[in-house]
Amino acid sequence: MTEATGIVGEFLSLKEETEADLLAMQCGDFYEFFAADAETVADELDLKVSQKSSHGSSYPMAGVPLDDLTPYLKALVERGYRVAVADQYETDSGHAREIVRVVTPGTLLETSDADAQYMVAIVADSSARGDDPAYGLAFADVTTGRFLVAEAEDADEALTELYRFDPVEVLPGPEVRSDDDLLGLVRERLEATLTLHETEAFAPKRASHAVREQFGDGTVDRLGVGESAVAAAGAVLEYVEETGAGVLASMTRIQAHRGDDHVTLDATTQRNLELTETMQGEREGSLFATIDHTATSAGGRLLKEWLQRPRRSLEVLERRQESVGALSTAALARDEIGDVLGEAYDLARLASKASHGSADARDLVAVRETLAALPAVADVVAANPDLADSPLAEILERPDRDAARELRETLEDAIADEPPSTVTQGELFRYGYHEDLDEVIERHEEVREWLEGLADREKRRHGLSHVTVDRNKTDGYYIQVGKSAADGVPDHYEQIKTLKNSKRFTTDELEEKEREMLRLEERRGDLEYELFEELREDVATRAELLQDVGRALATVDALASLATHAAENRWVNPALHEGDRLEIEQGRHPVVEQTTEFVPNDVRLDDDRGFLVVTGPNMSGKSTYMRQVAAIGLLAQIGSFVPAKSAEIGLVDGIFTRVGALDELAQGRSTFMVEMSELSNILHTATEESLVVLDEVGRGTATYDGISIAWAATEYLHNEVRAKTLFATHYHELTGLADRLPRVANVHIAADERDGDVTFLRTVRDGPTDRSYGIHVADLAGVPEPVVDRSRDVLERLREEKAIEAKGGASSEPVQTVFDVSSGQFRGAANTDGGSPKSHAEGDDAGALDAETKQVLEDLESVDVNETSPVELLSKVQEWQRTLEK
Ligand code: ADP
Ligand code: MG
User: Fold this and answer.
1) CATH architecture of 292-429+537-569
2) Angle, vertex CA 777, rays to CA 773 and CA 781, nearest 5
3) Domain ranges of the chain
4) Strands 135-141 and 119-124
5) Distance 244 CA to ligand 1 centre (A)
6) Ligand 1 in reach of 618 Cβ (< 6 A)
7) Which tens digits make up the pLDDT trace of 416-444?
8) Element holding 734 (H helix, E strand)
9) pLDDT tens-digit profile of 658-695?
10) Phi, psi for 350 (deg, rounded to 5)
11) Measured in angstroms, how far is the CA atom of residue 695 from the centroid of ligand 2?
12) Which of 16, 24, 412, 671 is the one with CA 20 to 30 A from 732?
């Protein structure tokens, strides 16, 4: 390749300097992308590519106008690209260019998305031994100035934290880069850009220096986190600075996010419970979308944060409940608060913009108006005795109210009612704000008035009709006279242009005024810009105050949102306690109840009854029931009311849910391997204080494997982990566990079968189901009549045999059925021929089945679901049906 010189050469050598994926280089009035970058950008954004010849070679080139860069940048960054921006500046010998900013998903300030925009650095703790390293994480949202550090004991926990914050950009530390497990999960589970920032930034000394510089000397001790978390924090700070986002001033506070304070919700659970998006990846229909009635984007962010990070502190939760309770009965006050907040803007984001220097005068008006919302909301609260007595009053007192008032007054005195969005052309400030400016404004107004009155004066003085005075770029100020009157203009009028119906003139006097006008405009523009920058910097130094006010308003917004939802949907305040009991009377699923005539259900879990085996026919409502219990528990731990008639809820330290691979496969996500590794994670992480929800776990493999795993997992959860557990299963064998294990109880979802028709009652009752209704479902699904009939016969026979056996005593304890790993067979403890259908099929009564049916059953059993494609399966089923029809 020939050495590129000239402009393309400059582009290529700037590109060497940056790790960004793309480079936008200013060339006069355009930002240009060259070479491969031009092709990429053109592809992504539908831009035209032209060819640029440079020293004998030709290069693709794509450009966007200078003022239009932002939307293009946003679009590229949202697609995951990191874009470096090089600006052009004057030098003695012409001009040169320099990279001024690297815009990445995590450092994009021009976001229009209400969601938080976190970037995260992850550092492995080199002092942790064994193959279970600990991790330190630092999360920063440049758009709001939020900065948090967290620690994780292992990769799973790290992933849990990551999933919670849902970062858009991940900076792995040096060791994490070779940690394929964690990186693999990050790639698979998060939609984040991976950025390899220079390794020195992660060095403990350098990083802790950066943290101290930013947040103050005592920070590292105060946080009480390990070296790796500090290293992560330092690396993020350096990265933010290096990319030129220039928002460090708005990062005023660093907080440690402690897992102990929060309910563990691992990544899979967050997805299964459809917290912020449905399994199909849609926002609509998620728990968050359902309960979100916030009026501001900051309120929405906070409510989402609560959902993703439920709390474990009774005190914190009861305070939230108190506010929600007071607000839920104060409909009028809630409306008033909603009206005030409806006018409020995102203060945290505005503080970042001020720090970055991109806030304009309208942004400062937004700051002023939003600061005014604080006393307005406080007035509403004070006027309502219930609210005044609630923690809301204290929440609104948290920000420095005097400082907020002063800043608001400053901005009110300074900025005009409706300033323009450009900050360089004056008219931003009010008269009276600044003495020198006042003089300029006075003079400016005088000249303007003179010019405005000129047309009338000229008409009168010279007896002219059809006179207007105006200005444009080429002619400057001019007097325009209609054609009919143009001949009568006085001699001192100097003609500058002839138009179709009029002529344009100027005079010495007008020219002089024009010069003065231009001088004044320039002076006013410069002076106002100078004053504006001062004011903006002043606002930037109050970033923390703005964040505090923003936080208080967001908190009220989120609480009011919970109150609104509670009031509109007849939710009740759950009684929270630190014991084990979980009792929900007539509970509903918070999302499903919105669209369905929901049949309420009870649940009771306590010391003596900590493990429920949930059975019931397919489609009867098992999954919904269990998710409903988990969702109610979760809502209770954000301080929300819950969909039930009444509820008593013992706080949990974690919620874990797993859905069997087969159900997940339907959504094209999971494999049996994933199901098992997730199960293993629960068995490791859940504690006596956790809530575990297992939905058809073990279903993703051949029957006996599945039963065995489910059986063993149940025993382990019951005996060792002792977590509160709900386990839905279609393995009837598991209902027998209730007799063997003291804390296991059976519940089933009732269905009514009459004349072969099944009605789902959706009501949960104690005890196991006795039927699977599978044949009914097969019938509904259109399986040929003969097969359905034949199945009924077979089932009937099997039932009779079971009844005989039960009388005979051999299987009077079918619960003693155990799975013998060495033989791979089920056997009863008292009788090797236990209660399972298979043993009948193969046992003495095998003759009850004809050879074809037996063959089909054997084939069926040997199918490896995970190794067979749906199409193959279908053709097998067809084959079996044919065999059976014979
Ligand atoms: P299963 O897990 O037993 O196969 P699901 O929980 O998936 O059943 O529920 C099947 C259908 O029944 C879903 O469409 C669900 O919305 C509805 N459903 C479940 N429980 C109830 C209920 N209590 N009231 C009304 N509809 C329900
Ligand atoms: Mg289900």
Assistant:
1) Orthogonal Bundle (1.10)
2) 170
3) 3-103, 119-257, 292-429+537-569, 575-772, 803-885
4) antiparallel
5) 52
6) yes
7) 999 998 988 889 999 999 999 999 999 99
8) none
9) 876 555 444 444 566 677 777 877 888 889 999 999 98
10) -65, -35
11) 7
12) 671
Ligand 1 pocket member 620 (CB < 6 A): yes
Q: Which fold has domain 3-103?
A: MutS, DNA mismatch repair protein, domain I (3.40.1170)
825 C-beta neighbours (distance < 10 Å), count: 17
State pLDDT tens for residues 228-260. Answer: 999 999 999 999 998 877 778 788 889 888 777
Q: CB–CB of 524/426 below 8 Å?
A: yes
Return the best residue to mutate from 613, 624, 696, 760 for the ligand 1 pocket (most ligand atoms within 8 A of CB). 624
575-772 classified as CATH 3.40.50.300: yes
Q: Is the pLDDT of residue 843 over 60?
A: no
**CATH tag for 119-257 (out of 3.30.950.30, 3.30.420.110, 3.40.50.1220, 3.40.50.720):** 3.30.420.110
CA-to-CA separations, 625 to 280, 630, 694, in angstroms, rounded? 20, 9, 12
Average pLDDT in the 377-396 region?
A: 96
Rounded distance from Cα 616 to ligand 1 centre (Å): 11
Cα 232 to the chain's mean position, in Å? Answer: 22
Task: Reply yes or no on whether the pLDDT at 170 is more than 90.
Answer: yes
Ligand 1 pocket, 699 CB below 6 A?
no
pLDDT of residue 848: 60
> What sign does the CA torsion over 391, 392, 396, 397 have?
negative
Q: How many CB atoms lie within 10 A of CB 832?
A: 14
Tokens of 219: 């920070």
- What does the pLDDT look like over 735-758, one tens digit per residue? 888 888 999 999 988 877 666 566
Give φ, ψ of 730 to 5 degrees. Answer: -105, 5
Check if the beta carbon of residue 540 is closer than 8 Å to that of residue 249.
yes
Q: What gap in Å lies between CA 536 and CA 257, rounded to an integer?
A: 31
- Cβ count within 10 A of residue 737: 22
Per-residue pLDDT tens for 185-207? 888 878 888 998 888 999 999 99
- Ligand 1 atom nearest to 627, measured from its CA: 6
596 lines ligand 1 (CB under 6 A): yes
Instruction: Output the CA torsion sign for 154, 156, 161, 162.
Output: positive
Whether residue 619 is annotated as binding a ligand: the answer is yes
The two counts, helices (H) then strands (E), for the chain are: 33, 29
Confirm or reject: Cβ of 616 under 6 Å from ligand 1. yes
- Segments in 809-869 forming alpha helices (H): 837-842, 851-862
